[in-house]
Amino acid sequence: MPDAMDIVGPDCSISIVTCKRPAMLSRLLQSICAQKQIDRYALEIVVVDNDPQRSAEPVVQDFKNSSRQELFYFVQPKKNISLSRNLAVAKARGRYIAFIDDDEYATEAWLEQMIDTAERFGADGVFGPVVPDFHPHTPGWLRNGHFFEETLVNLPTGSPAVDTWSGNCLLKASLLRSIPGPFDESFGTTGGEDTGLFDKLARGGARFVYCAEANVYEAVPPERTTVSYIMKKALRGGNAHTRRMLDRARRKAMARLFMLVKALCQGAVAVALTIVSAPSRAASIKWTAKIASNIGRLLAVFNWHYQAYK
Predict the structure, then answer these.
(1) How many other C-beta atoms lie within 10 A of the C-beta of residue 302?
(2) Distance CA 189, CA 247 (A)
(3) pTM, whole model, 2 decimals?
(4) 149, 255, 258, 266: which has the fewest C-beta neighbours closer than 10 Å?
């Protein structure tokens, strides 16, 4: 028997957490309002502003005045992305909740393809590609190094989604509400709150699939095209991943020892391959990033957490 949300709520709530990116938020909202077949669905857009100065409010108000879609604006002032995501989930009324980041924009058939994939395959969640949108002067080594292509997997639509991310996904609202939170606040300043939740849901039996056609594009501005940024990104990823693995482990001491040895061994291999691949800048930086990732893992073993959101 369907619950009340299935009867009276919108088909989908689009959740956007934003912080001090009004121009990017405007482009994202434009792409959502321009969705193909948008009138097939009852939609709402939930924007949570993580800026106490309310920098997103003028943008949201402009779209509220001109858009046919219901658009709701909330402020969550504490620097904690989990709290912001949790507020968005709490305020959403849809049967599905779609997540898209404020530095992204959607292709015109994005939402239609995500919802159709969920219903066609009876999935609890759908994950789609996040394609890097490089600025014109991006260096060749970065374009060729695949540093922003973690979600570009070579799988047909309907395949099980082994890896998960929040930059382009759609989940049943009832699934998200089945867990308190649902995003873990302890990961709210470090990152990893999204994959941690999705891993937990998958281990609980949730069925996640991939939609190859539902692209969104992520802006890669000049400040993200530096070696320093790539290293920080890798260190953060390794740190957050190891934290999640340690949180899941039943035998904490053994897990820490295993993670320590693994990070040391992988780091040593990465050092050697960095030296060997020196003639190719893209390859050399790729392996240097592996070193940074394993440093992040080692730091997590010793309870140091990288602060991605300050």
Answers:
(1) 8
(2) 16
(3) 0.90
(4) 149
